[in-house]
Amino acid sequence: MTSIAKPLIPLAPLPKNDLGLTIRDYEGAMSTLCAGCGHDSVTAAISHAFWELSTPPHHIAKLSGIGCSSKTPTYFVRGAHGFNSAHGRMATIATGANAANRELTYIGISGDGDSLSIGLGHLAHAIRRNINMVYVIENNGVYGLTKGQFSPSADIGSKPKRGEPNALAPIDPILLGLSVGATFLARAFSGDKEQLIPILKAAVAHNGLALIDVISPCVTFNDHEGSTKSYRFTREHEVKEIETDYVPVRLEITAKVSADEAREVVMHDGSVVRFRAVPEGYDSGDRLGVEEYVRDRAQRGEIATGLLYVNESAPDLHELNHTPTTGLNKVPFSRLCPGSDALVDLQRDFR
Amino acid sequence: MTDIITDVRVNDFAVKLANVNGTGSASANGLLMQAIFRMGIPVSGKNLFPSNIQGLPTWYEIRVNADGYTSRALDYDLMVAMNSVTYAEDIAEVRADGYVLYDSSWPLDEALLREDVNFLGVPLARMIIENFQAPRERILMKNVAYAGVVVALLGIEVDLVSGLLAETFARNEKLRESNQRALRLGYDYAIENFSCPLAFRVERLDATKDQILIDGNTAIALGCLYAGATVAAWYPITPATAVMDNFTRLCAQYRREELTPATDDAPATYQNNYLILQAEDEIAAIGMVLGASWSGARAFTSTSGPGISLMGELLGLGYYTEIPAVIIDVQRTGPSTGMPTRTQQADILACAYASHGDTRHILLFPKDPAECFEFALVAFDLAERFQTPVFVLSDLDIGMNDWVVPALTWDDDFVPDRGRVLHDEDLASVKEFFRYADPDALYVTPRTLPGSAERGAYFVRGSGHDLHGRYTESPEEYQEVVDRLKKKHGAAANYVPAPTVQRRDGATVGVITLGSCDLAVREALDLLAEAGLATDYLRVRGFPFSEEMRAFVDAHEHCFVVEQNRDAQLRSLIAVETGVATERMHPILVYGGFPLSAQQVVDGVLASVEVTS
Q1: A99 to chain B: which residues are within 8 Å by CB?
Q2: Which end of chain B has less neighbouring CB within 10 Å, N or C?
Q3: Is 90 exceeded by the pLDDT of residue B266?
Q4: Residue of B nearest to A127 (CA)
Q5: What domains can you pick out in chain A, each with its CATH number?
Q6: Residues whose CB is less than 8 angstroms from the CB of residue B2 and which lie 6 or more positions away in sequence, other chains included
C-alpha cells in the first residue's frame, strides 16, 4: 500500500466544523490509485461526510481487506485508527473490534472481489449479525491489481478489455443483503458526491450494518465500450428515483419542514433521513417491495441508486447480546474474574 | 464357568465397557468412575468413542490404581460386553483369569467362549422388560442395571452410588426413582448369583481428598474465564466444542450483572460482560479474535486441527502485525478430517510455524486439565506481553476425558499482564509514537488501542512495513522489523512454562515428552527403574525452547522422544530449533488414536536399550 504524504498547504481559510477542524483534517495520504479512479471520489466523499458530521477522527476505526479499494483507508481521515487486513477478511476483524469496543465509529472499505468473492461468507454473516458499522463496497466489476479479471459483480455480457464477455450471473450485494436480513442498503455512483455524502452520513447514524454499494468505475480495466461498470454506462443507466437528505439532530429542531412522516426515518441517534424523491408507492421499509423494485430495474438494464432500504428498529450485535453500553474492553478485571471463593464453590461440582 | 482361585487384588485393575453409541451408556460408565473417585481411589476413565451420533460401537475404560498409575491399560480384568456386534474382539481383550459380563437374555455363541476367562451372564434385557415400560427408558435403565452389577462385582459402595444418582436427578423424581430401581435390580442380581466382590476390587482410600474430577475442556474454559477473556469466537468442531459450551455456561453464571431497573415496574434487566460469537468458519473466528485483541479485549478461539489449517493466513497477520491472540487447539487425529473422535499430538509443527512466510509462534503444552486451567491464563499473559498469537495445545484425551487432578487454586492478588500499551496519558508524555519502534528488552514495541488520542493512531497492515508502521518495500526496512520479530519470539523462551525435569541416579538414558503423554511416561519410567534401567525425564511445557532442552539431550547417551504422531514432530522441532542432531533422539511414536499407555513406552525404550543389571 504505497502512500505519499500529502502536503498540508493552507490556502484560503477553510470552513471549520463543530470540532474546529477543516476538511484537511479529514483527509489522508495522497492516493496512489490511477488518475480518474472512482475510488478517489468515494474517498473524498467519506472525508466530507465525517467532516460534516464532526466525528472526532480518533473515534473512527477504518478497516479494509485487500485490493484497490482496500488501499483507500490511508487516503482519508489520517487521525483515525486503521487496519488493512487480509483479502476478504475485513468483516471478521471489524466484527471482533466492534465486539470489544462498541463506542467507536467503524467504517469498512471493501471491493467487489474482496466482498463478493473471497469474503462473501463473511459479508453475509456480518450483515446477519448487524454489526454497527458502515460497510462500503467500491464496486467496479474487476480485479485491478491483478490486471483486470472479472469479479463476481460483473454483469452477464459485460465485455472485458481482452477476452470473452462474462457469462456468469452477477452477485448483487443489495439483493444479497435483502435476503439475509440487512438493515440498511444503499447504492450510489462514485461520480455523484451529492448523493453519496448524505447516504454516508445516514449510514454512520444507522444502528447496525449499513451497506453501501458504490458503483466505482475502474478507468484502467473496466471503463471501455461494452463494460457495464464504466462511467458512461453508469451515467446512462442510473435511475436516481430515490433521493435522500440527511438531517442531523441539532438541525432537526429548527428545520422541521416535511409534513410527510412516511417519507422520514428517524435514526438511532435522533437524526433524520428524509426521502426527497421516491417513486409512487415506494416504501424503504418494505423488504419485499424493495427487492421487487431493484429486480425490476435490473431487468430493464437500469441501476437503481439511493438509500434503498432502512430498518432502524432491528437490534445490533450488542443489543442482541446484552453487553454493557461502554466497550467490553473497559470492564475492569475485578469484574471479570470470579475470584478464589467462587473457584472453591464451583469445584464442588467436580467431586 | 472356570473356577480359578486368585489372590485378592485391591485397587489395582482395569475394566472395559463395550457399548453401542447413543444408548446413554456414557452416563452409567461415568457414574462408576465417579463412585470410585469418591471412594478416595485414584482412577481414570477413557472414552473411546466413534464419530457418530447413534449406533456404532463405543468403549469406556476404567483403570483403578492406588499408586496413581492411571494411564490407559491394554488388557482388562473385567469386560462389560454390552454390544453383541463387538463380542469377539471384546472377549479377546480380556486377560487370562479375567471376567466377561454379558447379557444372558440371549445365549452366547459357543464359539466366543474362552477356557481361561470367566463368563458372568445376567439376563439384563429380560429384567428391564419386566420392570420398565417405555422403550427409551428400557434402553437407559439397562445401562444403570449393568452398572449395578459392576458395583457389586467390584465392591463399590452401593449407597454411595445411590447417593450420586440422587444428586444427579435431584430435580426429577421420576428419573430418580427409576434409576435407583434399575441400580438395585443389577446389584441384587449380582449379590445373589455371584460371589461378590471379585478378587480384584476396590477398598476405600484417602488419596483423592484434595482432588477434583474434571475434563480439560471445562478446565480451559475456566482458565479463560479467570483470565478475564471477554470476547470469544469459534466454530463448532469435535473435540473442542465443549470449551465454548463451558465458557458460555460459566459466563452466564459469573459474568452477568443484574441492572437496577429505571423504575419500580420496569422489567429486570442485565448486562453480559462477555460476547461469544459463533462464527461462520474458523477463518472468521480468528479474524474476530484479532479484531477484539487489537481493540484491547482479551479474546480467544477454540478449535482443532482442521480449524488451525483454516486460520493459517490470519495467524500470520496476527504474528506480523503483532496482535495478541489465544488459540486453544484440542488436537484430534489428522491428516484431513482424520478421526475426529480420536486423540493425537500431530499439530505441533503446524502450530509452531502456522502461516506462510517466516512465522513462528508461542506454544504451550498442558499435560492434564489442571495445567489446562493454568496455561490458559499464562497464554493470555504471554499473548499480551509478546503481542502475538499463543497456542494452547491440548488434545482429545485431555479435553474430553475426566481426569483426577489437584483442585484448582486462585490467587486473588493476581494481576494480568496487559503488556506494553500506551494509553492517552502515556501518549501525552511521549514525543512521537511509532508502532514498531522503541523495543524493550524482550524486543516488544509499544502499541496503542483504537480510540486512543490522535497521536496514537496508526495503520495496522499485513503488508510490508517499517518500524514506523509505514508501508515499505525496502529490504533494509522490511528486515529490520522481521529480524526483531524473530528475536522477540526467542525472548519468550524464558517466559513460557519451564520444562519439568526429574532425575534418577546414574541415568544414562533421557526421555523427553509433552502433554498428555506424561502420565504414561512416568509410569513407564518407574517400570523401567524396577527392571533396572534408570532414566532421566524432561517434559516440555512450552515453545520456544530454553537452553535446558539442548543440555538435556547432550547430557544423555540415549535420548527418547515420546509423542503421539507419526512423524516425530516434537523431535523435529527440537532438532531444528536447538541444533541437536536428529539421530541423537530415538522416537517413540504412538499415533493410532487411543491414549498412550505405559507399556508402549516401556517397549519403545527396551527396543533400543538393553537392560544389563
Answers
A1: 231, 275, 277, 288, 291-292, 297
A2: C
A3: no
A4: B280
A5: 23-330 (3.40.50.970)
A6: B115, B116, B117, B118
